[in-house]
Amino acid sequence: MTAAAIDPAAPPVVPEDHVLVLFGATGDLAKRKLLPGLFHLAVAGMMPERYRIVGSGSPGGAPDAEGFIAHVRNAVREFGRHELSDENWKPFAERLSFAAASAEQPDALVQAVARAEQDLGSPDVRRLVYLAVPPNAFGPMVSMIGATGLGERARLIVEKPFGHDLASARALNQTLHAVLEETQIFRIDHFLGKEAVQNILAFRFANGLFEPVWNRRHVDYVQIDVPEQLTIEGRARFFEQTGTFRDMVVTHLLHVLGFIAMEPPRRLDADSLRAQTRKVFDAITPLDPARAILGQYDGYRTEPGVASDSTIETFAALEVLVDNERWAGVPFQLRTGKGLAKTRHTVTLGFKKPARGMFALPADSRPAMRPDELSFELSDPGMIWVDFLAKQPGATMKLGPASLRLSYSDSFNIANELQGYERLLHDTMLGDQTLFTSADGIERLWEISAPLLERPPRPLPYKRGTWGPAAIDELVAPHRWHLPYD
Question: Which terminal residue of the chain, N or C, has fewer Cβ atoms less than 10 Å from its own Cβ?
Fold first, then answer.
């Protein structure tokens, strides 16, 4: 199933001049995503005509300017999508600088930002400040940004987790609002920046074939499945404080659920999209601990930095119910975890089965059949497929499994495709909050999570390379998990 290749309909929108201040510039997130992403935006012609990037990190062991440029070059070479050349690297490198800073020692960074703005020849140039720092540093760094004036003319990107419960989320929002207006705050969820996640909206709302059946009268269940093969990969300090539910479900999976379950927005803008996802969040019933399964992979407690008696979950599967006219009675089945069989980002809608009494279905073929399912693979570049039954060639009416598939890489020109962080960095420079989460939306998700956080089931052990604890099959019965049957 293919479509003719298309070119972008319009040249990319170029943001106004910017100074980008990147806290945590030598950390893992910056190395893997942010620095290669900014380089890709520059090569694609989507950075401002004039900009400067000021990296920052803790004073102890911070690199000098030349060391930081070398660090960025290595990050782009290892994780970037473009081959480095003098032609594309030199103009990017000329815009890089570094200044060590902490909440208590901000002077060097303030001076570096002033120099960058002076280089651009504008005293009131727009600023983008990215907090790629541990959660316990959010408050002090935000207060420093306010006290030094770095928040003036700034848009601030805050990384997850946005608190660890309702009380802490409210406290974080109060800290942010003491320094910045809500319109200046961009709570980033890179899942919402994925092309394939956004295409759920296009697929549903732009095609009359699908929107009429996107409801409880036709949909039997919805699965949002994000297994990961990797383990905690040396992130014990973070994971022991957070766990899989806080790290993935509140921040990623429930936001994707909001996109799937929303009513048609009037426009695809920040106000309309946020209003509709907030209605979905308001309709979600408090999470029932009896309809949740937590797990911990064998060997987690021997990971460096993990407590020998840790009860932190590395796996979470749960049922979410949306109690409104469109979705009442339809289970949303969520699963995510570390050390699982595959890394996938898959959304599946299972449709109600028609009467098939007139057909002879061979008993031995039923387990392999996955008809009546519409699936979205959200991993870049993305895929959509529909599983159904069709007549097999021959003299008898014998049915067999069939599938229609759309692969983005085969069907569209994806040369200018943006990865999640790249899209959201660009949107922030434009001041577009459409794909970012709001303060009240975050607080509502922590509110519905409270019962599960207060009475979490004890994590069940599971072997690495599997799909999680065996009990997850009972959680979704009489249905089955789409993965690994695709």
Answer: N
